[in-house]
């Protein structure tokens, strides 16, 4: 009898505890997702960048898509935020910037940005004044982030990767970079067309175009070779032509001054 | 009876199989002829378009020579640019492997660049050097037209002029080669003013570095002490020559690097090894890359671009000269994001100027900013050093911002106020 009474008491306590916990949890505000410890810079990707863009969007600094990629608009938004909040204007998101951002957006939560935002730049004008009233945050004197531009589109790079794979798969890696470098050297030479597609598809310019191997799907190595060539690696040191001595009988090609041999290809001036 | 039936069946089978084979072969032949006719038509179209554009170019050059009014001169120069560009496009659709001289393309490119340069610089139409160049271009354009006309009017069979099976026909090949050779190179023309491109090769510098020193230089970069099996080969041809190509193996992978034999400068560095799972922080990799550059002697740099793919981070740093970034010169550092190791270094663009280019009579900031269109929403502006169309380093103002939803950069010469270029930022 006594043990039954004790069981009843214990059950009441358990029910009471569960109800209390449930009520407490429902009454709490939704949990705020916080940044991880890593710093963010132009080129960073991931959930942290999503959060950064979301918080900046909430404050009206960021007007682009919440895509998790730290690009130009994110960079400019960070700079404006840093300027307005008295932080060093670097465009890089360090711990101090993250703390200031979290403090400025206490009500932000991850679900707010599920739709992403593509507001127009007009929304941004309130913070930087547009072209007529430049904020001092926009004026950079030597320091700051100055992005480069290769001037090549994604389709150009993809086409180059197709040529590299079609012409030089199986060659050493530097031999693949060399093919991409030759294409880029032609792009900068006045004797050749001014675009990557025109260079690649000039009749007779590349064997892989003639035999259809340009249509093969390039692998990761070919894409990396293109990326390295675009980054400035030119193992050919300015070559404009190359040929496979085992397959070429073109006398003119053989007469060209050789720069170097990489794998099965001779690269010429 | 049975034998007769057997023979008849056999004969019928032979006829059916033979007929089918013939029909298939005939179809293939017709397809091949149709393809060849299509290719011929395309080449002929490109050739005729090239001729028409060259004639228009020659007319525009004549018009530019015939006027003294600056406004009319600029209008005719615009036509010159337009037709030169169109001619380049037409020629790019003709077979290119008959001759690698590409003199016509070079000629058109030079005419195009020069016309653009004259327009930007507000060149007077009556200047003697301008008239001399225009006359030279006019004559050369006439030569090209004559050469193209010879090919256009060459006697042709009903089937093909351009293709002989899968090869370019000898008549077409020889015609194009003769045309290229007859024009000669622009460099051979002393009267033509060709804008500097900045890519011309210079005389090779003297060798001041021994191969062992080159190996030591690369070994210090790679953090290797044992280089007994490393090799350094001197190369004297190509850009940046003379240079040593240094190759060797390390416990981490194989190294391939190039060191200038004249200055000892590291030109490129590549560590070849498998890249593991990405677990290194990207921002930390950027910091490491800049510290690595500092160890190579590049202290005054600014991060200019960054990106990562396939577990590899790439950072571009622009040198600072007098505190200003040099846009057309960069050092690229590649970092493996499995452990943060630097696996690549490449120079890009021209070597930076040794000192800040002079900028006297600088246009006021407001006047410069007024040269940017009203639809362009500026996000940042800063002074930079860039190469102008003549190949000289100049100070300029770079305005970065958005047009609609796309990021762009407008660069304006600090002294002349001329727009040097517009970059679409990726």
Give a quick precis of the structure.
Chain A: Residues 170-267 form the Cell wall hydrolase SleB domain. Chain A has eleven helices and three strands, in the order ααααααααααβαββ.
Rg over C-alpha atoms of chain A, rounded to the nearest angstrom? 29 Å
Mean pLDDT of chain B, to the nearest integer, reads 87
Helix coverage percent of chain B: 40-55%
Number of domains of chain A: 2
Shape of chain A: elongated
Low-confidence stretches of chain A: 23-32, 115-149
Count of distinct structural domains of chain B: 3
SSE class of chain A: mainly alpha
* Radius of gyration of chain B using CA atoms only: 30 Å
SS-derived structural category of chain B: alpha+beta
Q: What would you note in describing this structure?
A:
The complex is a heterodimer of chains A (269) and B (426). With 269 residues, chain A is mostly helical. In chain A, 45% of the residues lie in helices and 4% in strands. Chain A folds into 2 domains: 47-138, Muramoyl-pentapeptide Carboxypeptidase, domain 1 (Orthogonal Bundle), CATH 1.10.101; 154-268, Arc Repressor Mutant, subunit A, CATH 1.10.10. Chain A has 11 helices and 3 strands, in the order H-H-H-H-H-H-H-H-H-H-E-H-E-E. The longest helix of chain A has 26 residues, at 2-27. Chain B starts with a helix and ends with a strand. Chain B folds into 3 domains: 10-188; 293-352, Nuclear Transport Factor 2, Chain: A (Roll), CATH 3.10.450; 365-424, no CATH class. Chains A and B meet through helix 3, helix 10 and strand 2 of A and helix 3, strand 6, helix 7, strand 7 and strand 8 of B.
Summarize this structure as a short list of keywords or feature phrases.
heterodimer, A: 269 residues, mainly alpha, Muramoyl-pentapeptide Carboxypeptidase, domain 1, Arc Repressor Mutant, subunit A, 2 domains, 11 helices, 4% strand, elongated, B: 426 residues, alpha+beta, Nuclear Transport Factor 2, Chain: A, nine-stranded antiparallel sheet, 8 helices, 24% strand, extended, germination (chain A), sporulation (chain A), signal (chain A), hydrolase (chain A)
